[in-house]
Amino acid sequence: MSGHSHWAGIRHKKGINDAKRGAVFTKHGRIITIAAREGTDPTMNFKLRLAIDTARSMNMPKENIERAIKAGSGEQKDGAVIDSVLYEAYGPGQVALLIEGLTDNKNRSVGDVKTILTKNGGKFVPTGSVSFMFRHVGIIVFPLEKYPAEKLELVALDSGADDFRVEEDVFLVITRPEHLQAVRTYFTGKDFEPASAELGYLPTETISLSPADLEKYENLKELLEDHQDVQTVWDNLA
How remote is the C-alpha of 84 from its chain's centroid? Predict the structure, then answer.
């Protein structure tokens, strides 16, 4: 799978330029807003706690975080309504894509995503066309520069996680969605603080692309991820 491209992606990079930093803050603000609909206390709302932790890891200003929470709680009445979207598509070489997004205008989002796909070797497909190739999971990421893989593996075996693996410079712990909070808490109780913890999609089978198709796909993926309404692009690339 191409998981390393997610974990080393823009939301974990430092030193991004101001324009992209602003876009990243907007995207994380939307995640916080959605999470805050289920409660504004991060000690009681695990989704909100994860969203805030991730935003802070990107140095998102405190006032931005607070504003996003108010928008989700309804306290900020003039804020736009944010909705979750999940699009399915094929990219160059028939790589399967799940495109997660948060938007204040569904018509704009679907139109823009379709245009990006069509102009860059991709194809928008109906719901259910590729989602069966993925499983919905919890994903906890630990940097190997901070923690030895051997120690993380020992904790993972007792944590209740479904799986774990090493990918490039990170250690991934895979859980059932409903077990994400408990497994993350188990690790932090053992003094292992993750770089991130989120719900996502992992492929059940993977494919490989030719060098030419891989280059086309990487370009398509970058264009999709740069769009203001797109949060994450998941694929089944080996």
Answer: 13
Share above pLDDT 70 across residues of the chain, in percent, rounded to a whole number: 89
- How is domain 3-73 classified at the architecture level of CATH? Orthogonal Bundle (1.10)
Top-tier CATH class for 83-132+205-235: alpha beta
Under the banding of pLDDT at 50, 70 and 90, the label for residue 54 is: confident
CATH number of 134-203: 3.30.70.980
Angle at alpha carbon of residue 68, lines to 63 and 69, rounded to 5° = 100
Alpha-carbon torsion angle 180, 181, 184, 186, nearest 10: -120
Measured CA to CA, the distance from residue 89 to residue 91 in angstroms comes to 7
Q: Whole-angstrom Cα distance, residue 105 to residue 108? A: 5
pLDDT, tens digit (0-9, with 9 covering 90-100), for 18-43: 557 678 888 889 999 999 999 999 99
